[in-house]
TrEMBL record:
Phosphoenolpyruvate binds at R132, K314, R345. Belongs to the class-II DAHP synthase family. GO terms for biological process: amino acid biosynthetic process; aromatic amino acid family biosynthetic process; chorismate biosynthetic process. GO terms for molecular function: 3-deoxy-7-phosphoheptulonate synthase activity. It catalyses: D-erythrose 4-phosphate + phosphoenolpyruvate + H2O = 7-phospho-2-dehydro-3-deoxy-D-arabino-heptonate + phosphate. This is Phospho-2-dehydro-3-deoxyheptonate aldolase. Pathway: Metabolic intermediate biosynthesis; chorismate biosynthesis; chorismate from D-erythrose 4-phosphate and phosphoenolpyruvate: step 1/7. The keyword Nucleotide-binding does not apply. Its cofactor is Mn(2+); Co(2+); Cd(2+). Binds 1 divalent cation per subunit. The enzyme is active with manganese, cobalt or cadmium ions. It comes from Basidiobolus meristosporus CBS 931.73. The keyword Ligase does not apply.
Length: 479
């Protein structure tokens, strides 16, 4: 070979290596490229060596979700964005490791399945269910510290960072491993019960209605259950395919806040259809960016821009419409339908002011998103007893106004995002059971935000179902 040819070849190889180096040194996305950006709500660990050991172990552990499941959810959310299905996302504000137990998991699955049954009946379209569970362990906080019994302590940041007990507030890396194992155990039990008789929807009348203290709700639910049961029996008799109804897809989600954890569980795996290698967050199916961490040039947005999972973005009053369009371009450059769920959370008094501008901005951007209403986070108030609560009326009003505004602007509200539990807690006031402020101490359990209890959650589903029924008859409004 001629020496000049050899030199040319050598230079080319050098150039290739340089290109690859610049790609890894900051320009190209990788599961760790967020590390060069500003991390909002960062957690500071004293023992970095221990943190590294924990992260190495997490990188070694197997995925908890698969590309097939994640793709399946993406396809279902594309249908939601096009108005062909409705999204129900719900669960605890802060899931505790302690909730990883038979009864709390069963109660949560049960309430979500019952609500989805009611919503399917009301909207006459399938319901996609995503639980805020099996990983919803991290919390952003407005203040890094709080005063307890006159003493300043670090705020509780969720079970995967520190403990709720004031003596356990120091961030502990071992809790990240705790998060993995509690997620895995919760997911395992969810999959187990969904593959057993627990989830049989063929006979809605078999659902246990004992919990309904309120006779109005009980009769409404009973009547829906009877009608559904009749319809399903009819389908069976005429030989129609009821597999759509009996087939239970159930997905998990959490806020993607603690990026070292998310990074360690992000794996390069083949797309189940094309075999092309892609990056999947295998700790869950769906993750969202919180309202406090969605800065365009921040670490969270960088991380979220490279993963295949469907993602959510919380969208509150401080989101500028122009910023929203740019954000969507960054996290979804190919404008894939339903890849992004915008979870709006303004409060019932501010939704009229901010939602229209956000709808217009998204329309102009050319993105087709899932619009979900989170009627919880803009409606938190202080009860006279000092605890945080939410009024059922404000929650329902924000959903109702969101339905109306979307319709006025030529869009559809595609879903709801709720903080709720299948247990009979007393954290939010109102609902058909008329829970009052003085009832709150009876069973106030939450370690973060107040959740709708079992009955209040069913009430919300019934009101939305009835809204759809009335809309079919030509009138609108939730109440
Ligand atoms: C949450 O969903 O619990 C939460 C903290 O919400 P946001 O980011 O909308 O405040
Ligand atoms: Co919350």
């Amino acid at each position: 070979m001629d020496p000049s040819e050899l030199q040319e070849m050598f230079d080319k190889v050098e150039l290739d290596i340089e290109d690859r180096n610049t790609e890894t040194s900051g320009n190209k996305w990788s599961p760790s490229s967020w590390r060069s950006k500003k991390v909002t709500q960062d957690v500071i660990y004293d023992d970095k060596e221990e943190l590294d050991k924990v992260l190495a172990k997490l990188r070694h552990l197997p995925p908890m979700t698969s590309p097939r499941e994640i793709k399946n959810l993406r396809e279902q959310l594309a249908d939601v964005a096009l108005g062909k299905s409705f999204l129900l996302q719900g669960g605890d504000c802060a899931e505790l490791f302690d909730y990883c137990s038979k009864v709390p998991i069963e109660n949560k699955i049960k309430i979500i399945l019952q609500m989805s049954l009611i919503l399917t009946w009301g909207a006459r379209i399938p319901v996609v269910r995503i639980a805020r569970m099996a990983g919803q362990y991290a919390k952003p906080r407005s203040k890094p510290t709080e005063i307890i019994d006159g003493k300043e302590v670090l705020s509780f940041r969720g079970d995967n960072v520190n403990g709720f007990d004031p003596s356990e507030r120091k961030p502990d890396p071992q809790r990240l491993l705790g998060a993995y194992f509690h997620s895995a155990a919760s997911m395992n039990y969810v999959r187990t019960i969904l593959h057993s008789d627990f989830a049989v929807l063929h006979d809605p009348t078999a659902w246990d209605l004992q919990h309904f203290r309120n006779s109005h709700t009980r009769e409404e639910y009973q009547s829906i259950a009877n009608r559904l049961s009749d319809a399903l029996n009819y389908m069976k008799v005429v030989g129609a395919d009821a597999s759509q109804i009996s087939n239970i897809d159930f997905f998990t989600s959490h806020e993607g806040l603690i990026l070292p954890y998310e990074e360690a569980l992000t794996r390069e795996l083949p797309d189940p259809d094309t075999q092309e290698l892609k990056w999947y967050n295998t700790s869950t199916h769906f993750i969202w960016i919180g309202d406090r961490t969605r800065q365009i040039d921040g670490a969270h947005v960088e991380y979220f821009s490279g993963i295949e999972n469907p993602i959510g973005i919380k969208c509150g009053p401080s989101m500028e419409p122009e910023e929203l369009g740019r954000l969507l371009d960054i996290v979804n450059p190919n404008k894939e339908i339903g890849k992004v769920t915008l979870i709006t959370r303004y409060g019932c008094n501010l939704v009229d002011k901010y939602l229209p501008g956000h709808i217009k901005a998204v329309k102009e951007s050319g993105h087709v998103v899932v619009w979900a209403c989170d009627p919880m986070h803009g409606n938190t108030e202080q009860s006279s007893s000092g605890v945080k609560t939410r009024n059922f009326r404000s929650i329902v009003e924000e959903i109702s106004r969101s339905f109306r505004i979307h319709q006025e602007y030529g869009r559809t509200l595609n879903g709801v995002h709720l903080e709720m539990t299948g247990d009979s807690v007393t954290e939010c006031v109102g609902g058909f059971m008329e829970l009052e402020h003085h009832h709150l101490p009876q069973n106030y359990q939450t370690s973060c935000d107040p959740r709708l209890n079992y009955e209040q959650s069913l009430d919300v589903a019934l009101l939305i179902a009835k809204y759809h029924e009335r809309k079919r008859r030509g009138s609108i409004g939730l109440m």
